[in-house]
Design brief:
2 strands, 3 helices, two-stranded antiparallel sheet, mainly alpha, Helix Hairpins, rod-shaped
C-alpha cells in the first residue's frame, strides 16, 4: 500500500492538498488494495490449474478399464477415465478464462494507478510516496 512519510518543514508549507488531490490519493489507495487482492486470486487460480494438470497426468497413467473416483462438490463418484479427463479439461478451460480475466483486470488497474501516480508525483514531487514497501 502507499507509504506516506513525514515531510520536511520546508516541504510542509509548499504542499497544499486540495479535495481533488485527496480523491486521487484515495482512489490510488483503493486500486492498490484491489491489485493485491487480484494478484492473490490470480496465484490461487494458477495453483489450481497446476493441480488439475497433475491430476490429468495421473489419470492418463490410470488403467482405462477401471473407473476413477472423481470429486463432485463434497462427495465422490465413479467415472470412466475418459469422462474424468473431459471434466478436468473443462475445469482447466474455466480456470484459463479466469486467469486471463484476472490478468486483464490487473493490467487495467495498474494502468489507472500509473496515471494517478504520475499526476500526484507531478504535483507533490517528493512530498508524497506511493511506492510499495
Amino acid at each position: 500500500m502507499g507509504n506516506f512519510g513525514l515531510l520536511d518543514k520546508e516541504e510542509e508549507n509548499d504542499v497544499e492538498v486540495q479535495w481533488e488531490d485527496q480523491q486521487k490519493i484515495n482512489r490510488f489507495s483503493r486500486l492498490n488494495v484491489l491489485v493485491d487482492q487480484l494478484e492473490e486470486h490470480y496465484k490461487k487460480q494458477k495453483t489450481e490449474k497446476e493441480y488439475l494438470e497433475d491430476l490429468a497426468m495421473e489419470i492418463e497413467l490410470h488403467d482405462e478399464d477401471e473407473p476413477v473416483m472423481y470429486r463432485v462438490g463434497q462427495g465422490f463418484m465413479l467415472l470412466e477415465v475418459e469422462d474424468a479427463q473431459q471434466r478436468i479439461e473443462k475445469q482447466k478451460e474455466g480456470i484459463d478464462n479466469k486467469v486471463e480475466e484476472l490478468k486483464t483486470q490487473i493490467e487495467e488497474t495498474e494502468k489507472e494507478m500509473a496515471k494517478l501516480k504520475a499526476a500526484l508525483y507531478n504535483k507533490f514531487g517528493k512530498a508524497i510516496n506511493l511506492e510499495k514497501d
